[in-house]
Amino acid sequence: NRVRLVGAGRRNTIIKAGGSFTFNGSTDSMIRIGDASTNTFGALIEHLQIQANNVAGSICVYSTKCEEGSGLRHCTVEGYIVKGIFFSGGGCQNWLLSNLELFSGTAATTNVGIDINTSASSNTIFDVTVSSNAAAQSTLPAIRIQSSTVNLYRIHVEFYDIGVNFGTASGGTLEGVCANATVVKLVQLDSGAMIRDINQNSSTYAIWDNVRGISGSMNASGWYNLSNDGGAGILKSTFASPAAFPSRLNSPTTFGNTLTVDGAFGVTGSARFGAGALFFNDFSAFGTVSTGPVLTLPSTGIVFGMSNTSAAGGNTTITTITAT
Fold first, then answer.
1. What would the mean pLDDT of 207-235 be, rounded to a whole number?
2. Contact 42, 68 (CB under 8 A)
3. Strands 302-303, 278-285: parallel, antiparallel or unpaired by DSSP?
4. What's the whole-model pTM score?
5. What is the DSSP string of 202-258?
6. At 132, is the secondary structure helix, strand, or coil?
7. Contacts of 301 (CB under 8 A, 6+ apart)
8. Residue 243 and residue 165: Cα distance in Å, rounded?
9. How far apart (Å, rounded) are the C-alpha atoms in residues 232 and 133?
């Protein structure tokens, strides 16, 4: 606890793996934060370069016990073949990675820059670039969130097929992400996440949503929400009154199988809803709305300019909406 490893600058102080340094490719690393049994608080790596020197199986930083006040700040992480930073296990929670540059090694075509497989706590990745000094294109994500809640801000990616991947057991937010033409899927969703300010630049896809089966491009900026209730992969969104969600620059807004809105609900761009039930008291659409096979009108209120005139005063089911 409370140990800081501090250099004189991330391009001035270098810790470098020698030619005889060996890695097992899974848990051996140049620097480990904490040991295998004790939770570690206030342990920081700062202002230095961690250079794995293209050694086979290399990981630069590893931890299973990185807790509050621990992490990396103002560092470069370079020359790794397997992973740049790897946090794993329930003992890693509420950590911080900020102001970092990561550059994979030569022939590192299956590397992950930052790999997170920890507990669902409040973790932060801020102001990070993940790239390759050797222009080695990786088929794996630059940042992979396997099983944690992580908030990411100001992320830049090059030379990875996938920029940021929210895995099936993950969640969080991503605000401010960009890439270049070497990136195929800027953001891949295998679970729920909230994404804002997406700058696709020349990457092939801005959003690749495996949960809803949607892939699409997007202009600079934009807003995309896929909520996750954490229950057996079932996605839903429940919002209290009032609820209003603007879609900037016509970026899509995607919701799960059940959406309940108690107050007014407005969409200014495009919205797509799943095959489950939709319940609204007041809905206004100024763009394009696509629904599943069933839309339910409540006994009171107005939907798409139509009020419920059912004689019994119950719900009215709409199976087809035709534009005129």
1. 64
2. yes
3. parallel
4. 0.77
5. T-SEEEEETTTTEEE---SS-EEEE----BTTB-EEEEPSS-----GGG-EEE--SE
6. strand
7. 280, 281, 282, 307, 308
8. 28
9. 40
